[in-house]
From TrEMBL:
It is an enzyme of class 2 (transferase). Its cofactor is Mn(2+). Pfam families: Glyco_transf_7N (PF13733). This is Beta-1,4-N-acetylgalactosaminyltransferase.
């Protein structure tokens, strides 16, 4: 009887050890989504010295003093999506969505590039908010809305490539690859390029009561860096992971401001899109295939370009066969 009890005890002990072993093996060796890449974090006190001070060659300013940005990055205000009501709405903005402060000489020229299709109400909200926000930061900027006119699935990467090409042709040294649905929470999140490409949207607050890392991200990158990596891949719309891999292929790192300064509101959240984007596999291109696929190989038909009072509207057709090559040189 005593021996039989020992046999059962040994059986249970070995069974428990085996179960723990199987659990550990499954935990470490089963396939899981790749963890997000790590970025260099810039502290608030280091922000200004890491910014690239460069303006467009065609910018003319008669102001005696340079604009001062330390007060901007030290600002502690937290905005709501309706914060534009407290600021000037589009005062001084020229046709094409171009603005430069008249009271001081700006140190930064930036192009804000937004892929777009069939979202008039969100576009209006975005423009009202962002013009007020950028006006407050005393930047020289231009807003490009790139609209896909065909019925094919929306390809944000190709639209961003097209907008970037237009911005570089107009001499903008800094590109902000934006999302129509995202509005910045902190005025201290200065819309200028850093020495390293920057992930601007670290956290995104949705209408749901929680905060998550966004796949619909906002990136600040210099025009020189964008040319170096040949822009974004035209083959798919998972452009943020593709950008990470392209930067890695060219030995470029990404940075970000402190998470508290990099928060955004999402004014239109689609849960199915979030889950699909989150589960896509990350690309790993080489330098060679970034040369073969990107801004230099993007083909499209330009339908029209219209200079509206609040933005430059570039309308394109990505689906037709009689393409023209995108000339960004």
């Amino acid at each position: 009887m005593y021996k039989r009890r020992n046999v059962w005890k040994n059986f249970l002990c070995y069974g428990l050890v085996f179960s723990c072993f199987v659990f550990v093996i499954n935990l470490f060796f089963t396939s899981r989504p790749a963890s997000p890449p790590s970025y260099v974090e810039l502290k608030r006190e280091d922000m200004l010295q890491n910014l690239v001070e460069e303006t467009s060659k065609n910018l003319t300013s008669y102001a005696y003093e340079e604009c001062e940005y330390r007060s901007v990055v030290l600002e502690s205000a937290v905005l709501s999506p309706s914060a534009e009501a407290g600021w000037s709405l589009g005062r001084g903005v020229r046709d094409g969505g171009v603005y430069a402060p008249s009271e001081c000489r700006p140190k930064y020229s930036v192009a804000v590039i937004v892929p777009y299709r069939d979202s008039v109400s969100r576009l209006y909200k975005f423009l009202m908010f962002m013009h007020s926000f950028l006006h407050h930061q005393q930047l020289h900027y231009r807003v490009y809305i790139v609209e896909q006119m065909d019925t094919e699935p929306l390809n944000r990467a190709r639209l961003l490539n097209i907008g970037a090409a237009a911005a570089m042709e107009h001499g903008f040294p800094c590109l902000i690859l934006h999302d129509l649905n995202l509005l910045p929470v902190r005025p201290a999140n200065l819309y200028a390029c850093t020495k390293l490409p920057r992930l601007m949207s670290h956290y995104v607050k949705y209408r749901l009561p929680y905060t998550v890392i966004s796949t619909n991200s906002i990136i600040a990158i210099t025009s020189k860096q964008f040319k170096t990596i040949n822009g974004l891949s035209n083959k798919n719309d998972d452009w943020i992971d593709g950008l990470d891999a392209r930067l890695e292929a060219h030995e470029l790192k990404m940075c970000q401001f402190e998470p508290e300064l990099s928060k955004y509101y999402n004014i239109e959240y689609d849960e199915s899109d979030w889950v699909t984007s989150l589960n896509q596999e990350r690309q790993s291109p080489t330098k060679q295939n970034t040369d073969d696929d990107g801004i230099s190989t993007n083909k499209y038909t330009k339908v029209s370009t219209v200079l509206h009072p609040q933005f430059t509207h570039i309308m394109v057709d990505l689906a037709v066969r009689s393409y023209i090559n995108l000339n960004y040189a």
